[in-house]
Amino acid sequence: MQSFPEIHRLMRSPLDFAHILDEIPLGILVMDKDLRVVHLNRFFQALTGFSLDMARGIPCKNVLRSSACILNCPVLATHRKDRSISCTSDMINTDRQKLPVRITTAQIMDTQGHLTGYIETIEDLRSSATNDPEKNVAYSFANIIGRSRKMEMIFQTLPMLAQSDASILITGETGTGKDLVAEAVHQTSQRAGGPFIKINCGALPETLLESEIFGHMKGAFTGAVENKPGRFKLAHNGTIFLTEIGDLPLPLQVKLLTFLDDRIIYPLGATKGFNANVRIIAATHRDLESMVSIGKFRKDLLFRLNVARVHLPPLRERGADIRLLLDHFLNNYTKKQGKKINGFSEPALSVLLNYTYEGNIRELKNIMEYAVNVAQGTRIEADNLPAYILDYEPVQQRLKMPAAEDVTQTQSEQPQMPESRQTGETGQTWSSVQRQMIMNALKTARGKKNKAAQILGMSRSTLWRKIKEYQIE
Question: What CATH code would you report for 317-392?
Answer without folding.
Answer: 1.10.8.60
